[in-house]
């Protein structure tokens, strides 16, 4: 269910990037630049960051990272809320993240890292299943 939703979301995002970006998505020079920036993101620029601008990079990101990173965020929280990370971690997360435990009406989300929409996509399912 979670993976299917993330796959469907990535497909919709890819279609929109292709529609808006047109030939920029497949332009060899722009794709090469996008691949270089993705490599930098994975290796040397994590502390500095990279520019996410441009349809070629958006397309590459959504096709290669969106589903995996969204699933990672969901899996981390699932481990905590199911008790797999231990009872102390579960108690802390329930106290801080659930409406009942924290007394807050909404969950505040901090970006863990990754591109646009990634953390939020994982948190959609954390919210549906655990909060």
Automatic annotation (TrEMBL):
Top-rank taxon, per record: Eukaryota
Protein name: Uncharacterized protein
Species name: Eutreptiella gymnastica
Lineage, highest ranks first: Eukaryota, Discoba, Euglenozoa, Euglenida, Spirocuta
